[in-house]
Amino acid sequence: MTHTAHRWAWSLPALALGGLVWAAHRARASSETTRAALAFVERLDESQRAKLEFAFGDAYRRDWHFVPRERRGLALADLDLEQRGWLKRWLDAALSTRGLAKVDGVLELEALLRELESTPERPAIGRDPDRYVIALFGEPSDSTPWAWRFEGHHLSLSFTVIDGHVASTPFFVGANPARVPSGPLTGKRLLGEEEDAARAFVKSLDDVQRSVALPAGEAPADVLLQPGRKASFLEPAGIGASALDAAQREALVSLVELYASNLEPDLAAHALAALRDDGAESLRFLWLGGVEDGEPHYWRVQSQRFAIELDNTQNGANHAHTLWRDFANDFGEDDLTRHYAEEHSK
User: In this structure, which of 9, 155, 332, 342 has its CB flanked by the most CB atoms within 10 Å?
Assistant: First the structure.
């Protein structure tokens, strides 16, 4: 899928925006997403809608994963070219140019894996970009809760829309190979910017800071907050922002902003409200494993509210997973609790 989209822009001073501005961001993002979803649904026939639509309360809404598996929902294979264009518009309402490129990159790498893993006797039919699915939970509306997920191998994007709020986690992207070794895509690194930014940060630390940020021990085999695990770290590890100088703190905030930059600008502003509310001083950073390019490693940046992880240990440290989760508002849980409380009070 090709796309044209807006340019994402953000700056540190924007963290000082007031509540009315955040509310405007939320309402605009919510309405755009709702309109894009309705426009897509209108282009589907009855059989396609039957695959796409689930009740908002269906347990499948929280049944996310990033491994190759059978998924319920409407697959890309079920869409014609025009319908794919409307799906792209829906994704464009939630993602920035950078985020859309991440989606395209995951599908591109899935096609590459099919080529690399196929033999004349046994084609790797499980590696298929057309198997990625869209699932809709509830009816798109600005007044009632609804949600949607776009998912397949190495990609799980969940969005929940409640009372003008759009929750955008869990947000998972994987890259295999993390660095393409040969062929037309030689050198491509889908998560290269994220890895490089974190590595530059950890290398900026002095010996005393490193002793806290890089405790002894091997990197885990994967991200820790994967499906089936509640989004929380009871004992935050690593170095706190209070132990960093001004430039280092700015670099750490920029790493969080880099992840928010995958979202459409208004959604990015809403997502970063958690950082605004906690304060940049609440951030902590942890690195496990080697710090040189090509060495197995894991890193995490977290606040009281959220955590972002990246693990690159598999396939000789050439297979990366990154995950962003909100401790309180994954799948809009916090927003949903508030919604039901307000409805009950009426």
Answer: 332
Structural contact between residues 238 and 287, judged by C-beta atoms closer than 8 angstroms: yes
pLDDT at position 226 is 93
Instruction: Please state, in angstroms and rounded to a whole number, the distance separating the CA atoms of residues 333 and 184.
Output: 43
Nearest by Cα to 272 from 238, 306, 242, 243 = 306
Residue matched to tokens 């079920």: 78
Sorting pLDDT into bands at 50, 70 and 90, what band is 11?
very low
Amino acid 104 reads D
Tokens of 138: 């509830």
- Taking the C-alpha atoms of residue 139 and residue 121, their distance in angstroms, rounded to an integer, is 45
pLDDT at 345: 63
- The encoded tokens of residue 100 equal 């859309």
pLDDT digits (tens, 9 = 90+) for 30-83: 789 999 999 999 999 999 999 999 999 999 999 999 999 999 999 999 999 999
| 99-147 tens-digit pLDDT | 999 999 999 999 999 998 888 888 888 899 999 999 999 999 988 999 9
Predicted TM-score (pTM) of the model is 0.90
Residue that the structure tokens 């997403």 belong to: 33
Q: How far apart are CA 288 and CA 297, in angstroms?
A: 6
As given in the structure block, the two tokens for residue 299 are: 């890193």
H-run or E-run covering 130 = none
Beta-strand pair 297-302/284-289: antiparallel
**SS3 of residue 324 by DSSP:** strand
Any idea of the CA torsion for 175, 177, 181, 185, to the nearest 10 degrees?
A: -50
3-state secondary structure of 283: coil
- Angstrom distances, CA of residue 114 to CA of 97, 109, 111, 132, 177: 26, 9, 5, 14, 12
Report how far apart, in Å, the C-alpha atoms of 214 and of each of 199, 203, 314 are. Answer: 12, 11, 20
